[in-house]
Automatic annotation (TrEMBL):
Domain Aldehyde dehydrogenase: 11-477
InterPro entries: Ald_DH/histidinol_DH, Ald_DH_C, Ald_DH_N, Aldehyde_DH_dom
Name the record gives this protein: Aldehyde dehydrogenase family protein
Annotated signal peptide: none
Keywords: Oxidoreductase
Family annotation (Gene3D superfamilies): Aldehyde Dehydrogenase, Chain A, domain 1, Aldehyde Dehydrogenase, Chain A, domain 2
Origin species: Streptomyces phaeoluteigriseus
Highest taxon of source: Bacteria
Length: 481
């Protein structure tokens, strides 16, 4: 079936025709995605602008009800939606169901509740002066919607990532233009169908896709767009920020990561291996929060390398439809080649490959095996640059001070990790890490905790109530008491 664009509440044939979406596991066609023209992108932005006024004035409870119905529609189509997500992304069936479609539905459900959008400010006593007579000034802070939000999403999770932008944006009264990643846009169109079935008014949600860079550039630069929410590489984020800066558009940026995992000499090595090992299996390492840069204190360095090596070698690589598969393919042949080039670069830089490093003997698909690079140093490119695949580098350190210094010696600062048997020690070190989040003895997340990065890992915070702040402006109203 040839997918159509979703613009102004209507399904439109794309001016630029269609392009093929490929299953990275089988290299077969999943479907045909639409290629929007510049005029169609601008029409989507204009539709969102027109719909903004009425939608922003809709009662919060009514907006929440739409999101709740959308969550129900998504849950009701869990199996076919997950099958499409698996085919587009190469995620395992379990991951597609639980972490892609399941999380997507949960995020719509999360924002289908009304939270206070205003709060009182402590009254202020003003003395008589040039501004008027003496008196008490009351004040109220009110969250107002930003306007039209461009949601530019990543390929690694075509459900959770767009839902994490669309749901809070709509809850706050914004309208959206979604530009999904070109590799897996079909799932986002299913999300639009769910919102349409839930009764979202025309123009409130628009989806335009394309392989051409012009599609994303046009969305970002449109004068109808007030804010850009982007998830992707730091390089692309920097270019978007430049465009936003010229017209003072608001921005929320979740960019790259090179998560440092400090494993101290009193750590539970089994726990550390299991946590770090998720880099190999979770989206095949295509995730910005992964603990890809392991800093191991020398007292546990050999045991940790041995443990990670054995762990990586045990993981089954193959067809994501097979229930026993743990590691699926990367998103494309181009990205596979990029990841493999980093492994070769690591060898040349002096790293020792203790697991993986060779393309698995599978007839089809874009596979890279779980790969461990030991005996690395923090100045190697494999330790400094985001690889975005199932590749982990291990760097030894002597004492806490050196460990913290190495962890902070990075352009990135999204999520770091600390493994230690001494919780007080772990918390003390966590506060010294220049990262937006720190996991202590876990790679799990609290989905109400603020999410975002320091340094080149991004700008702003979202998730939970923080997303409602991210997709709103704060207005102050004052009056004489």
């Amino acid at each position: 079936m040839n997918q159509r664009l979703f613009v102004g509440g209507r399904w439109a044939e794309p001016d630029g025709g269609h392009y093929e979406v490929t299953d990275p596991a089988t290299e077969e066609r999943v479907g045909w995605a639409p290629e929007a023209s510049r005029d169609q992108v601008l029409a989507a932005c204009a539709a969102a602008r027109e719909a903004f006024g009425p939608w922003s004035r809709t009662a919060p409870g009514e907006r929440a009800a739409v999101l709740a119905r959308a969550a129900d529609v998504i849950r009701g189509h869990l199996v076919p939606y997950a099958e499409l997500a698996r085919a587009e992304t190469g995620a395992t069936t379990a991951t597609a169901r639980a972490m892609q479609v399941g999380v997507g539905a949960a995020r719509f459900r999360r924002y289908a509740r009304v939270e206070p959008a205003e709060w009182a400010i402590e009254p202020q006593i003003n003395e008589a002066g040039p501004m008027g007579r003496a008196g008490v000034m009351g004040a109220l802070a009110v969250r107002q919607p930003v306007g039209v939000v461009a949601c530019v999403t990543s390929y690694n999770n075509p459900w959770a990532n767009p839902a994490g932008k669309i749901a809070p944006a709509l809850a706050m009264g914004n309208t959206v233009v979604v530009k999904p990643a070109p590799q897996d846009p079909l799932s986002v169109y299913r999300m639009a169908e769910a919102l349409e079935a839930a009764g979202v008014p025309r123009g409130v949600v628009n989806v335009v896709s394309g392989r051409s860079v012009e599609v994303g550039e046009t969305v970002v630069a449109s004068p109808d767009v007030d804010m850009v929410s982007f998830t992707g590489s730091t390089a692309v984020g920097q270019r978007i920020a430049e465009v936003c800066g010229r017209s003072m558009k608001r921005q929320l940026m979740e960019l790259g990561g090179k998560g440092a995992a400090l494993v101290l000499d009193d750590a539970d090595i089994g726990s550390a291996v299991a946590g770090i090992g998720t880099t190999f299996s979770f989206y095949s390492g295509q995730i910005c929060t992964a603990p890809t840069r392991v800093l191991a204190q020398r007292g546990v360095y050999e045991r940790l390398v041995d443990g990670l090596t054995a762990y990586a070698r045990r993981l089954k690589v193959g067809d994501p439809r097979d229930p026993e598969t743990v590691v699926g393919p990367l998103i494309s042949a181009t990205h596979r080649d990029r990841v493999e080039s980093y492994v070769e670069l690591g060898r040349k830089e002096g790293a020792v490959v203790t697991a993986g490093g060779e393309r698995p003997p599978l007839e089809r698909g874009f596979y890279v095996p779980p790969t461990l690079l030991a005996d690395c140093t923090n100045d190697m490119r494999v330790a400094r640059e985001e690889i975005f695949g199932p590749v982990v580098v291990v760097i030894p350190f002597d004492d806490e001070e050196e460990g913290v210094t190495l962890a902070n010696d990075s352009d990135y600062g999204l999520i770091d990790y600390v493994w230690s048997g001494d919780i007080a020690r772990a918390f003390r070190l966590a506060r010294r890490l220049r990262a937006g989040g720190v996991g202590i003895n876990t790679v799990g997340r609290n989905m109400e905790a603020p999410f975002g990065g320091f340094k080149r890992s991004g700008v702003g915070r979202d998730v939970g109530s923080y997303a409602l702040h991210a997709y709103s402006e704060v207005q102050s109203i004052v009056w004489p008491g």
